Amino acid sequence: MLYFDGTRLADLRWAHNEHSPSESSNKAATAIPSKQTDVAAGSSQGSSGILSRLRDTLLKKASESANKGSKGAETVTPTYPDVRRLISMASSQRKTIIIALALLIVSASVSLAVPFAIGKVIDFFTAAFENGTGDKPTLFGFGFGSVALLLTVIFAIGAVAKAGSNILLELAGVRLIQRMRTMAYGNALKQEVEWADRGAGDVVSRLSVDTNIVGEAITSDIGDGLRAGVTVLFAGSAMFLISTQLTLLMMAVVPPAAIGAVFYGRYLRDLTNRTQEAVGEMTRTAEERLNGPAFRTITAFNTQAEESKRFEGKVQSIVELQTKEAYASGFFYAGTGFVGNCAILTLLTYGGSLVAKGVITVGDLTSLLMYTAYLGGGLANLTSFFASIMRGIGAGARVFGLMDREPEAIKLGQGIDPPSQRDVIKFENVKFAYPSRPQQKILNGVDLSLRPGESVALVGGSGVGKSSVHALMLRFYDADKGTVSFGDVDIKSLKPEKLREMIGVVTQDPTLFDGTLAENIAYGYKGATREEIIQAAKQANCWEFISEMKNGLDTRIGARQLSGGQRQRVAIARALVRKPSILLLDEATSALDSASEFLVNQAIESIIRQGKITVWIVAHRLSTIKSAGKILVLDKGKIVESGPFEELDQPGSRFRSLMAAQLEASAPGAVEEDEPSESDEPVIDSEPQLEEGSHEQANSNARPNSVRS
Length: 709
Hints:
Elements: H1 6-16, H2 23-30, H3 35-45, H4 49-67, H5 80-91, H6 94-131, H7 144-188, H8 193-197, H9 203-242, H10 244-251, H11 254-290, H12 292-300, H13 304-356, H14 362-404, E1 425-432, E2 443-450, E3 455-459, H15 466-473, E4 481-486, E5 489-490, H16 496-501, E6 503-506, E7 515-516, H17 517-521, H18 530-539, H19 543-548, E8 556-557, H20 564-577, E9 582-586, H21 594-610, E10 614-618, H22 622-625, E11 630-635, E12 638-643, H23 645-648, H24 654-665, H25 692-702
Parallel strand pairs: 3-10, 3-11, 6-9, 9-10
Antiparallel strand pairs: 1-2, 1-4, 4-5, 7-8, 11-12
Helix pairs in contact: 4-14, 5-14, 6-7, 6-9, 6-14, 7-9, 7-14, 9-10, 9-14, 11-13, 11-14, 18-20, 20-21, 21-25
């Protein structure tokens, strides 16, 4: 299932930066005047207050149409510039749409000629029957064979025109949807991480549903509306030309039926929206319960019956709504069918008397009956066209809102390039609170310094802000107060994408994407050679298990097709292949068993020994912490202790108390079994088996037993 969450968007943005077009070009492609300015300008240019109110009413209807049924979605009110933008968007397919509409008019004209032709053919045979002289009758001077051949050619032209119109409109719609999705998705990846932390609104809905609505509105729906308009105009005119009396009689029946169709359409639309919401609830329930962890929980607690009943309730809600729809449809179509049949009966009765009097012919009466059906269908289609266009305008506002959104603080392309040489990283009196919780200070005056090539472990209790320090370094957020600098340059003045190119990141639960191992390792690093990928895999201690796989680096994997230890080492290789100046390791071993932790720590220690990369570790496991040259203890938003392990591992130190708490948690009876976690399954290839001594070494490294009592 396609979804947006903060972690995945952060990973995507981090690697997307170097692929993104410059901000100026993006603005040129997507910028439109301010909504408030355009609305004011549009109002001042209105020729009358009535037109202005009518426009506002239409835009309100468009907003309601687009946002109905999008439960929990961000509501966007369309404005007049959005309508202009919609037309401008369609202009990119101007030639295709114009040709398609021209073919549509040809097709509609042929279709509308059918009743006339049928009427004349009936009169043709009626005249032959009444003549009785043996002379062959003619139609417009032609014999029936010639007329039939001509009609066949005309109908063939209409069929070809209809096919061409449908194909061209469909292609134009597909291209427009492709363009909108590409632009909207590309802009979404440029947003700040805090935007994703808020849930990223209904981004997926805009990318999938709304773009489809807009594409159809400015292609297929426009075509349907044009066809309906031509049909109503031509059919109505033809009816008046054939018989004004019969046409006026039918006008007494058609409008009430059309009004009924409008009310039924509104009721059905609301019912459909409610049904869509109910289906969405049912889908969310099924997805939530049928994913791996939830399914295990349901099985473990034997709640299958309760969950089945819960799901049955969701399904029953859909059934009730669809039952209402079935009754409404049944009564509506029965009623319209009855009214239509009565109208035809009336038309035949009165029309028959006109035929008997010689006012009109049988063919004229037949043509008029057919044009009546055309007129009713055209009016119904116009009503549907109006509703579709309103939905398209509303959906367009939502898509354009995503396409045009600018990050609130951290923008790609703004700033200067960072220094090319490695330099000191400094945090000076840094204070920070997450934008979603501004009253809750996470960092409250952090001061620290990291020299080039130094390895530092940042430790502290849960929730003290260890990962927040990394987030500030990556400029996922900016500090509220204080300075984070690289060398003598405040990182706020650096281009975010250039800064992130210097940093490799490994998180506690790294995201791997659907693709090959080689593609995942090279992710975000354009032009990585096979040799560089293999070298990074060896550095990360994952080449052994990769080489044991049947397809090696070309093995396709997904998010969960490797064990936890394998994923973590692939993530380290991904961070190393870009040859970063800084490596951020955020709880990289916390979820691993002892054997996997040993292998990951081996890779980390190897990187640290080389001294080429500044390694910044956030960890709580002693085996990982001890590998760092310096330890920083974070407590209550500040660095309270700093120094090497031997210096901090003293009685009464904050570091000692943290490790003692870990020792207590790891005491017999509290140690987790080395069973595979749910994140470790399924496994493509088993972990490489360690020697017995290696297992002992791994287990000894994992236990915090070096803390002196």
